[in-house]
Amino acid sequence: MDNDCEVIRQSLDLSNTIGEGIQYIKLRFEAGHFEETLTLFQDVIEALLSIQKAVQPLVSNLSSNQLEYCSDNINNALKGIITAFEEGNRSMISGIIEQSLLPAYYKWQEELERCFVPHIAS
């Protein structure tokens, strides 16, 4: 259980950093720093995948959670952003970040905390 608690703590810490990263990407992208945001965006994707992989074994032991659904929503938003980048549709990217990625992230973060904070608090 100690190892699980450490995975949870690190995942929660990293998930907060991801939120800050998404906000920063949004600001930099809107300021016209497209190439810079691409590198940061890749880092966010890697961090999200890392958390999803790390908590997956723990999720199956939880009753009544929406983590997989929330992760799918984030992944779908990320796919939309990747497609827009590939197509060079910069105007679409801001909309996806604002209307899809950020709301999906906030719901995922909330669900992550709802499911795991009680386990590390006890």
Characteristic key phrases:
single chain, 4 helices, mainly alpha, 122 residues, 0% strand
Shape: elongated
Sheet with most strands:
none
Helices, by number, come to: 4
Percent of residues in β-strands: under 5%
**Over the alpha carbons, how many angstroms does the gyration radius reach?**
15 Å
Helical proportion, percent range: over 70%
Tell me the series of helices and strands, N- to C-terminal. HHHH
- Given helix and strand content, the structural type is mainly alpha
Give average pLDDT, whole number: 89
Spatial separation of the terminal alpha carbons: 11 Å
Low-confidence stretches: none
By DSSP, the count of extended strands is 0
Please render the helix and strand layout as text.
Layout lengths: L1 H29 L3 H26 L7 H21 L2 H32 L1
Overview of the molecule:
The model has no long low-confidence stretch (mean pLDDT 89). The protein has helices at residues 2-30, 34-59, 67-87, 90-121. The chain is built from 4 helices and no strands. Helix 1 (2-30) packs antiparallel against helix 2 (34-59), helix 1 packs antiparallel against helix 4 (90-121) and helix 3 (67-87) packs antiparallel against helix 4. The protein is mainly alpha-helical and 122 residues long.
